[in-house]
Specification:
4 copies of one chain form a homotetramer. Chain A has about 220 residues and is mostly helical. Chain A has a single domain, classed as Tetracycline Repressor, domain 2, CATH 1.10.357. Chain A is built from 10 helices and no strands. The longest helix of chain A is centred in the middle third of the chain and has 25 residues. The N and C termini of chain A lie far apart (about 40 Å). Chains in contact: A-B, C-D. At the A-B interface, α8 and α9 of A face α8, α9 and α10 of B. Chain A binds a DNA duplex (21 and 21 nucleotides) through α3.
Chain lengths: ~220, ~220, ~220, ~220
DNA sequence: CATGAATGAGAATTCATTCAT
DNA sequence: AATGAATGAATTCTCATTCAT
């Protein structure tokens, strides 16, 4: 798995203008290029993808890309800091709509799978390039990671208070356990060709998180 | 998560010779280069690493590498088909030493974590480059993946027969669930700097697999 | 040394309009851009300077520059044919205010140093780019060069008639000798940071031109 | 004028190996490329010249240049620190073969003109690119410059002691006066097409340095 | 077998110039 | 006239791969 956590409290949504010089007309071109890039990165991998490919996919000239992005790495950076930020914001919102821990987790997972299903290219690039710490500010990535894990942690703590979640485990491990499984499920979906309904995996997955695969010894009795 | 399954029944062990021209004594040079490459790939990433760096790390000339490997990609291919093959063979052996499903799974996970802990460079490259399917024959990777998942499947089926594992789940999902968690745990260990004892995570992890995080309503009764 | 001679008899002063499309009011914009360009060229060098930098310095849009100048090289061409032309016209005028050869040379040198001191950017660009014959019509530059040398020649001839200047030398060499020294003095002033009073060098320099550094053997007698 | 002074005490002659990776066979290739580069730079100017042009002129592939030089600027740097260094060493040697100030100056000028005549491309590049402080370490260039001026200064001081040179002038100005004239003479020779015998200018030039262009009023009497 | 200098295709990036608004 | 976004040719530099020694 590549990215663990993701989420941002950030209130400032339109960071876009920061690096984009052209102010007047088409701010679309920024997104045009960003989306084209993500598509190409998804197909080729960030490294193998060339600016020319991205330009062609975006329907602009090579040089145009440098009007909207500092350089190739900056495209990836914008993907993480802008595109995924929006997604992770939604995760937190989604969680807040539920009351109890189990529902919160279910909402989170459902939304997680849902957002990636909506934008498979994003999913691919995210899974693959995210922790490739080399390209983007490592600290920045760790931040998003931590935030996602923090949402889970809050849910765990609440669940323990509510009596629906065990207390005899290492929280750090459980967080990986949860995140790892979702990611693997997403990855498989991506690798096998984005065919089936990803969101449908949410409920069975949460069921597994809670009940495990074992048959309760209680029943033995 | 990057690689899902890995394991090879392959009886033909010395496939190495297939593409390596040198037959005589220094078959060491093959391993010399392979290990150096893995080290460099772990540090730089496959793409960023150069043949010169690998050559220098291996203590050979650039040209020498092409005596033992077809090209740069072939080094990675050999890493997967030779180096990891040995590891995944051991997984199966390990599993066979146990009798019951739960013990088999525990052995598998323990060994999995153990092998990666023993060779962190391998772990890094594996986690990062494995499903970067672009470099290696995708089908081949899927094969290894499938084999690992097959071991798990066998364990699940056995467990269900033995009555220790539930039957009401999608086997495909459970396999990802198990594999994803291990991989995430390994990844975290890699990303945070290979500091703590990875194998110690095995038992708590298997405990989670079996019991989940929930408190069984049954016990209420 | 870079530029040797410069001076223009040209009666047609407003050649400017030739290539500049805009005819109406803002002929200022032409100068605005020209001066900004000289400043930027002085700081960056002609080649390294970009049209964008010039535009920004001139407070106009990039495209606007192409309304007043054919292309980048044309800016430099205009610098030489318009801006320096005015300066070199003044040289000749200045020379004419004196009667005797020695005073004429003194006036020329004084004015030469004075004009460059007044406009250091012009000095820098002139010294650096002038004979970079590649950018501007070489013949044209040679013309300006020749005119400056011609002023000197006239002075020399007059001096010889007046009996104040030797006759036993190659005029061509003497002209370079005179021009080279002034230019070197200007260059040093430019390179060391435009700090001291350049015009103050005129009298000592002319003194050296006339008397040389040697002690006259005559005095031995 | 471009470069003022040049000269190096350096005893270490073979600095070449420092940046050239290839050690074995052809150290010629270093010079092959360097000379080709100087030729191309002389024709095109450093900026306008492309690596491809240099490579073609040197009869090697583009990439080969980067085996011997860090980058384009490094070629120019090597030109100054290696190629011209040798020349300026000779200047000092030449000066030392004479006893009296006037002979020393004559030797210096003769040699200066001679070396540039021998290698016109070097002359062109030197004159044009030398003080283009932008490309090469400014301090370094200032050093060479200062050394040349220092040779002149030593000669001046000696001449004053010997009674052959006046004492009533600013040494700084005289140094520019001498250097400027030589350079202008070289420049003219370069610009007019490298046709006539440059060295033949040495004696008349030194004559002008010493006697100036004036007719000494003393003799009137 | 081993070497490492040479190669040249390929990639990122820059910037003069154009043109629709 | 003025603008500045868009263009794409051109340039520097990298690096996998080859091959003469």
């Amino acid at each position: 798995m590549r990215i663990h956590s993701f989420f941002l409290h950030t209130t400032a949504r339109c960071v876009i203008k920061d690096q984009a010089k052209p102010s007047r007309s088409n701010n679309d071109k920024y997104h045009q290029i960003l989306n084209a890039a993500i598509k190409v990165f998804a197909e080729q991998g960030y490294h193998k993808a060339t600016i020319s490919q991205v330009a062609k996919a975006a329907g602009v000239a090579d040089g145009t890309i440098y009007i909207y992005f500092k350089n190739k790495a900056d495209i990836l950076f914008n993907f993480f800091s802008y595109k995924t930020r929006r997604v992770f914001d939604r995760f937190k919102e989604e969680v807040e709509t539920a009351e109890h821990a189990e529902d919160k987790l279910r909402n989170l997972i459902r939304r997680h799978l849902g957002e990636f299903q909506r934008d498979p290219n994003m999913a691919v690039v995210f899974q693959r390039e995210a922790l490739q710490a080399r390209y983007i500010d490592e600290a920045y990535i760790k931040d998003i990671t931590k935030m996602y894990l923090d949402i889970i942690e809050d849910i765990l703590v609440q669940g323990q208070k509510e009596g629906s979640i065990r207390k005899d485990f290492q929280p750090g491990l459980v967080k990986r356990f949860i995140l790892g499984a979702v990611n693997e499920v997403i990855n498989t979906w991506v690798v096998t060709g984005i065919k089936y309904d990803l969101v449908a995996m949410a409920d069975p997955l949460v069921d597994l998180y809670f009940k495990g695969i074992g048959i309760k010894p209680v029943q033995v009795r």
